[in-house]
């Protein structure tokens, strides 16, 4: 039986993902926000860091070390990779029953050698890595409901995997020939001061980054490989697009012998027919970021390429909601026994 009110905390509440977790949690009927951490801003009110919270009565920001973790039921972690592992290990040590919703990359990769290769250091909490459940709700719902530690996927993997996993699992595409062209709003780069995210540097331009070396690539490969049953290496190129939030991924695939674009659409429709947040667009309708902005919804579209035997799958979501904090709330609902959609049914903000 779920508790009437769950006490939750947010680690890294001064970042964009942490702030969106607060925004969504603040109107969740079964949540009490009991602790917010931001070591740099400790002692400040949340509205001093994010003025749009002026109407909320929130706890003051504090250092993570000063939180009494034994009083919390769940914690959302919006800290950078690397730091997260050690802090979560300390939190679990203080309260072994606490539910962890990690929005960083620290527990997403099942193979620790792969983690070390892509993140530049050995995993610092290997004793927890083995129990982490990959938090893409649509594919791991039952495991998430029983988990203590959920590694919520990155925004790019969420959009890409929702487009690719059902068709890879059904054997409808050649998994040796996948190209993903991905574009994200600037909040995907975090809130830290960086020259390339200044308005005058990014406001009227579009630029690729981390070409052939983005850290979300092995995460996508891990999950497509698990679905297809064979090792997968794909081409993934992300781009920074001058808008605050939103994400659109265009996946170019080669059809398996004898398969058609209609087969892809049928597989996606079958996979998501009962899903509350993932919708396959009708034939000819193009997914757009403005259709999902500020919401936990995902829109997927399938199109025939002009090259015979190829197809184009387009998926879009809000990188801070379904791509991060919304997905974390969705997973928390499962872990604490609340209806999965609770607090997440906001319609997209348009225009």
From TrEMBL:
EC numbers: 1.2.1.38
SMART domains xref list: Semialdhyde_dh
Molecular-function annotations in GO: N-acetyl-gamma-glutamyl-phosphate reductase activity; NAD binding; NADP+ binding
Any one annotated GO CC term: cytoplasm
Known function: Catalyzes the NADPH-dependent reduction of N-acetyl-5-glutamyl phosphate to yield N-acetyl-L-glutamate 5-semialdehyde.
HAMAP family documented for this protein: ArgC_type1 (MF_00150)
Name under which the protein is recorded: N-acetyl-gamma-glutamyl-phosphate reductase
Gene from which this protein is expressed: argC
């Amino acid at each position: 039986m779920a508790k009437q009110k769950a006490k939750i905390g947010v680690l890294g509440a001064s970042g964009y993902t942490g702030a969106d977790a607060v925004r969504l949690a603040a109107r969740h009927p079964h949540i009490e926000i009991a602790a917010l951490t931001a070591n740099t801003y400790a002692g400040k009110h949340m509205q001093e860091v994010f003025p749009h919270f002026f109407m909320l009565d929130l706890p003051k920001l504090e250092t993570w070390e000063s939180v009494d973790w034994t009083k919390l039921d769940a914690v959302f972690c919006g800290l950078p990779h690397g730091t997260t592992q050690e802090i979560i290990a300390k939190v679990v040590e203080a309260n072994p029953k606490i539910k962890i919703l990690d929005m960083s990359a620290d527990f997403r990769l099942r193979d620790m050698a792969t983690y070390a290769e892509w993140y530049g250091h050995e995993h610092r909490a290997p004793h927890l890595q083995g129990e982490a459940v990959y938090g893409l709700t649509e594919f791991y719902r039952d495991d998430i409901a029983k988990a203590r530690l959920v590694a919520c996927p990155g925004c790019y993997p969420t959009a890409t995997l929702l487009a690719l996993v059902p068709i890879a699992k059904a054997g409808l595409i050649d998994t040796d020939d996948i190209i993903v062209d991905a574009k994200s709003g600037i909040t995907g780069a975090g809130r830290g001061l960086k020259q390339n995210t200044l308005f005058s540097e990014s406001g009227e331009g579009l630029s690729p980054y981390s070409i052939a070396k983005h850290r979300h690539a092995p995460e996508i490969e891990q999950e497509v490989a698990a679905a297809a049953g064979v090792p997968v290496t794909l081409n993934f190129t992300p781009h920074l697009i001058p808008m605050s939030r939103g994400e659109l991924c265009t996946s170019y695939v080669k059809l398996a012998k004898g398969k058609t674009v209609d087969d892809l659409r049928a597989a996606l429709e079958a996979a998501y027919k009962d899903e509350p947040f993932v919708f396959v667009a009708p034939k000819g309708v193009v997914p757009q970021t403005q259709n999902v902005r500020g919401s936990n919804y995902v829109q997927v579209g399938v199109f025939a390429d002009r090259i015979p035997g190829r197809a184009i799958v387009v998926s879009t979501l809000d990188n801070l909601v379904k791509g991060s904090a919304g997905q974390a709330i969705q997973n928390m609902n499962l872990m604490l026994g609340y209806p999965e959609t609770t607090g997440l049914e906001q319609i997209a903000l348009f225009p």
